[in-house]
């Protein structure tokens, strides 16, 4: 990459625009991350230990379709690392904040495993980059 002193005017303008956008996004990040946090003794993680597994794993991560005691369905993916869960939840919130339609996700745990909990949408499937309802 060229030294900034060697940039032409268009490159300087583009860089400044990108820098300002990242700065604005960074300033909004704490509020985005706080949205939807649930108060619990586990710092916002939802215990799914009493949920019933009602469907099989749909991807490469261990998990499946679960039903909460209130009857609502969720897709749950398990991870060994809380960092993986945090990354997925943060990415989801950033997508939603940017106006990209995604399924809402939450932090979860059960039996010593961390999980990403996705609200289940009946009749929705993914084909390439298109959602089919």
General description of the model:
The protein starts with 8 loop residues before the first helix and ends with a strand. It is α+β, with helices and mostly antiparallel strands. Helices cover 32% and strands 28% of the residues. It has a single domain, classed as Phosphorylase Kinase, domain 1, CATH 3.30.200.120. About 5% of the residues have low confidence. The chain has 2 helices and 8 strands, in the order H-E-E-E-E-H-E-E-E-E. The strands form 2 sheets. A 6-stranded mixed sheet has the order 1-5-6-4-3-2, with helices on one face. It has a two-stranded antiparallel ribbon with strand order 7-8.
Helix content: 25-40%
Structural class: alpha+beta
Number of strands: 8
Terminal Cα span: 45 Å
Give, in order, the helices and strands. Answer: HEEEEHEEEE
Average pLDDT, to the nearest integer? 75
Largest sheet: 6 strands, mixed
Which fold name fills CATH's third level, the topology? Phosphorylase Kinase, domain 1
> Any low-confidence stretches, pLDDT <50, length ≥5?
36-42
CATH class placement: Alpha Beta
What's the CATH architecture?
2-Layer Sandwich
């Amino acid at each position: 990459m060229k030294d900034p002193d060697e940039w032409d005017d268009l490159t300087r303008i583009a860089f400044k625009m990108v820098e300002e956008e990242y700065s604005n996004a960074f300033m909004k990040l704490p509020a985005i991350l706080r949205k939807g946090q649930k108060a619990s003794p586990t710092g916002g993680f939802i215990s799914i230990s009493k949920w019933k597994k009602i469907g099989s794993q749909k991807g490469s991560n261990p998990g499946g379709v679960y039903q909460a005691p209130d009857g609502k369905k969720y897709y749950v993916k398990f991870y060994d690392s809380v960092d993986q869960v945090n990354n997925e939840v943060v990415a989801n919130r950033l997508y939603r904040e940017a106006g990209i339609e995604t399924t809402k996700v939450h932090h979860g745990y059960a039996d010593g495993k961390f999980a990403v909990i996705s609200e289940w949408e009946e009749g929705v499937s993914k084909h390439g980059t298109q959602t089919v309802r």
